[in-house]
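#struct-pred
JK: can someone run the complex with magnesium ion? inputs below
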Amino acid sequence: MKITAVEAHVCNARMRNWVFVRVVTDEPGLHGWGEATLEWHTRAVVGAVEDLAELIVGEDPTRIEHLWQMMMRQHFWHGNDIVRGTALSGIDIALWDILGKALGQPVHRVLGSYGRSTLPVYASSLLFKPTAELLREAEGLAAQGFPGLKLKIGQGLEADLRNVREIRKVIGPQVRLMTDANCSYDTLGALELGRRLEAEGVYWFEEPVAPENLEGYEKLARALDMAIAGGETEFNRWAFKEYLQRQAMDIIQPDIARAGGFTEVRKIAALASAFDVPVAPHTGASSAVAVAASIQWAAALPNLLTFEHMYPPNPLREELLADPLPSPANGQIEVPQRPGLGIELSPQALARFRTS
Ligand SMILES: [Mg+2]
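RT: done, C-alpha cells with the ligand placed:
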C-alpha cells in the first residue's frame, strides 16, 4: 500500500477555523482522517501539512513510526515547533485511522487496548457567564451525573472564589470541581488564588500560568497540595519531560491533535507513568475528528485519569459526522468499536463548512 495524496481541508464556523487532514492511499476507498487545528495559525498549519506531504507521498502508510521520525527529523531544525507539530499530529492521526481500517480494528485495539469499553468523563467547561446562569448550568450538569465539572477562572481572585463557592453550594460535596485559568495569572497571583481554591476543595488548577513559565509551575506544584494540571499547548515528549522532571505538573493534558498524534501521545503518557503522573486528555474546541481520536487513545491508556467532555455547542463536533459521536451518560462515554477512528465524515457537512 502507498500514500497517494495528503490533503488539508479548512472548515469555518462561528468565526473559528478547523483544519482536517485526509491521507489517501492507492487501496480503493481506503483513506484516513486527522485533525490539525491550531487557532490563529490556519494558513501556517496548512502550509506545514503541504510541506510534510512531500516527504510521505509514495511511502507505505502503515510504517507510522518511520514516517513520524522522517517528518520530525528530515528538516533537522529544532523539533519544538507547534505549527509543524500540529501538522504532523493531523497526519499521524490519519495514518492510524488507515491502519485501523486496513486491519478491520478500532485504533484502541491496534494500540493494544486497555480494554475500556467506556471512559470516565468530566464536563468542560463552565464559561464566564452571569452568576445565575452559571449556577443553573452547574446544577444541570451535576444532575446529569457528571462526576466532575470544570470552571473557567481568571476574572480576579474575588470573582473566581465567589463562583467556586456558589457552584459548590448547588452541586453538593460529591461532584469534583476543577478550575482552568488558561494561563491568566502570574505566579504570585496564582499562588494566592491557589491557596484559597484548595481551601475550597478544588480538585485541580489547570494552566495557572503561561506555558513558558516552567519555574512558575514548579513553584506552584511545590507550594500547593491541590493538583496542578496543564500541557494542552505542548508538542512532543521532550516538552513534557521538562515538566515531569521538575515535578511541575501533577496531571498532564496532552492534546492528540497538537502533541504529535497517537504515535507521540502514547510515548508522552508512558513517560508520565514513570513519574506516576496521570493523563487527562485535552479536547477543548476540537472537532469530532480529534475527539474520536482522543477517545481511541484514552481507551488504550493505562494511566487515564478522566476524559474531557466538552458540552458547549460546537457545530464541527455535532454536525460533521455521518453518525454523531456517542453522548455521555452517568459520567461515562462509550468507546466506538468500528475500524480506525470509528467515524465517517458527512460529505454534505464537509461541503457546508469547508472554506478551502
Ligand atoms: Mg484548558
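RT: quick notes.
The chain has two domains: 3-104, 109-347.
The radius of gyration is 20 Å.
JK: thanks, will look after standup
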